[in-house]
Amino acid sequence: QAIDDDCNQTGQLLAAMLDWPQGTFASRVQLESGAVLVEREVDGGLETLRLRLPAVLTADLRLNEPRYATLPNIMKAKKKPLEVIPAAELGVPTGAPRLKVLQVQEPPPRAGGEKVESVESLVGKLRQAGRI
């Protein structure tokens, strides 16, 4: 699941920034020479797209069956060395970051809840607080 609140924004924004074709909600992917066939579920059935490569694809839940790691394999993975590859070796352009973090702070603590006797008193309290 994406960190964009499941709004399907991350893949589409990335495709726009790279100016690459995009295939969203892929339920089946098949590579061809210089292209990819993407099958996706739509309201009327299945839609198949042929995109030139490179392309950005986002996955539907039916694309893969997840493999769950066993405890012995997790322990083995902890012992494996982690290889760090500089971005320049991968051809990724480096430069000044596009975003700058100005401030990070915790949200204010939430006030405790309050029980009301009736819907009318709830509406009155909401009006008094300026919520409606």
Automatic annotation (TrEMBL):
Matching PROSITE patterns: ETF_BETA
Keyword Transport (UniProt): yes
Cross-referenced Gene3D superfamilies: HUPs (3.40.50.620)
BP-aspect Gene Ontology terms: amino acid catabolic process; fatty acid beta-oxidation using acyl-CoA dehydrogenase
UniProt keyword terms in alphabetical order: Electron transport, Transport
Electron transfer flavoprotein alpha/beta-subunit N-terminal domain span: 8-89
Protein source organism: Motacilla alba
Protein known as: Electron transfer flavoprotein subunit beta
Subunit-level organization: Heterodimer composed of ETFA and ETFB. Identified in a complex that contains ETFA, ETFB and ETFRF1. Interacts with ACADM.
Regions annotated as coiled coil: none
Places the protein is found: Mitochondrion matrix
Record has Transport as a keyword: yes
Sequence similarity: Belongs to the ETF beta-subunit/FixA family.
GO molecular function: electron transfer activity
CC per GO annotation: mitochondrial matrix
Pfam assignment, any one: ETF
Superkingdom field: Eukaryota
Protein purpose: Heterodimeric electron transfer flavoprotein that accepts electrons from several mitochondrial dehydrogenases, including acyl-CoA dehydrogenases, glutaryl-CoA and sarcosine dehydrogenase. It transfers the electrons to the main mitochondrial respiratory chain via ETF-ubiquinone oxidoreductase. Required for normal mitochondrial fatty acid oxidation and normal amino acid metabolism. ETFB binds an AMP molecule that probably has a purely structural role.
